[in-house]
Design a protein that fits this description.
The chain has 294 residues and is mainly beta. It has 3 helices and 17 strands. The protein has an 8-stranded antiparallel β-sheet with strand order 3-6-15-8-9-10-11-17. The two termini are 18 Å apart. Catalyzes xyloglucan endohydrolysis (XEH) and/or endotransglycosylation (XET). Cleaves and religates xyloglucan polymers, an essential constituent of the primary cell wall, and thereby participates in cell wall construction of growing tissues. It comes from Rhamnella rubrinervis. GO terms for molecular function: hydrolase activity, hydrolyzing O-glycosyl compounds; xyloglucan:xyloglucosyl transferase activity. Keywords: Apoplast, Cell wall, Cell wall biogenesis/degradation, Disulfide bond, Glycoprotein, Glycosidase, Hydrolase, Secreted, Signal, Transferase.
């Protein structure tokens, strides 16, 4: 994974979806937002810049907004560069996630929880499998995500789901089917992002409400990157195993350096991990038995 991330996602650039088997795309090109994504609601709350390669999502007291990928994907690498809502963003949530389309859905979530001015952003991640979630982990970021763009990425294959901030793995969800843990493998997902109000829970458990006098709240996006197996929503299988770069052996687990960085995040920046919450989960969830070794 590290070798790929050394040269992916240059600022302002996007790697086009590659049809080449066995290797990652290597030539960066400018690709407009409309190539892979479409707005989902409140179209007048999305603003386009630089030929559509950079966009702003706006939230006011009337509505938020969002967008989704045109295609559905079964495995791959998906990434956005985002600059979060600056200043007093209490009550707001900026989300970037993958989700399937049915009631027993699979989902892979990045959620950025706003704050009062001067307080750190909280990044919450979650994984749903077969409609079951409740796998929240929360961290503080080691930088101010409102000052510049940073890359937020998901690597998803048959072996693992890796959440990355820039090139740093912050979470791994392994395929532990042998332990009875469901893993997303047969439901294609669309890619979504949204900016919305959740002041009933997002900031200090809902104690801090959104200050609408600060509206509109603005999150900015660029480098819309997707390299996955595109499939119909009805598809149950994508016959790419061993043929695409993210299927290769080196992407089936983190390497030693990446595990060290993951441990660094765990020790320095983690503020909540469902795996250690004995109030909610008196019995340790089976996937957490491996997670505790990280």
């Amino acid at each position: 994974m590290a070798s790929f991330l050394q040269w992916t996602l240059s600022l302002g650039l996007l790697f086009m979806v590659s049809e080449t088997m066995g290797a990652a795309p290597r030539k960066p090109v400018d690709v407009p937002f409309g190539r892979n994504y479409v707005p989902t609601w409140a179209f007048d709350h999305i603003k386009y810049f630089k030929g559509g390669s950079e966009i702003e999502l706006l939230l006011d007291k009337y509505t938020g907004t969002g967008f989704q990928s045109k295609g559905s994907y079964l495995f791959g690498h998906f990434s956005m560069q985002i600059k979060m809502v600056p200043g007093d963003s209490a009550g707001t949530v900026t989300a970037f996630y993958l989700s399937s389309q049915n009631s027993e859905h699979d989902e892979i979530d990045f959620e950025f929880l706003g704050n009062r001015s001067g307080q750190p952003y909280i990044l919450q991640t979650n994984v749903f499998t077969g409609g079951k979630g409740d796998r929240e982990q929360r961290i503080y970021l080691w930088f101010d995500p409102t000052k510049a763009y940073h890359s937020y990425s998901v690597l998803w294959n048959l072996y693992q789901i890796v959440f990355l901030v820039d090139d740093v793995p912050i979470r791994v969800f392994k395929n532990l089917k042998k332990l009875g843990v469901k893993f997303p493998f047969d439901q294609p997902m669309k890619i979504y992002s949204s900016l919305w109000n959740a002041d009933d829970w997002a900031t200090r458990g809902g104690l801090e409400k959104t200050d609408w006098s600060k509206a509109p709240f603005i999150a900015t996006y660029k480098s819309f990157h997707v390299d996955g197996c595109e499939a119909s929503v009805q598809a149950k299988y994508c016959a790419t195993q061993g043929k695409r770069w993210w299927d290769q052996k080196e992407f089936q687990d983190l390497d030693a350096a990446q595990y060290r960085r993951l441990k660094w995040v765990r020790s320095k920046f983690t503020i909540y991990n469902y795996c250690t919450d004995r109030v909610r989960f008196p019995n340790v969830p089976p996937e957490c038995k491996l997670d505790r070794d990280i």
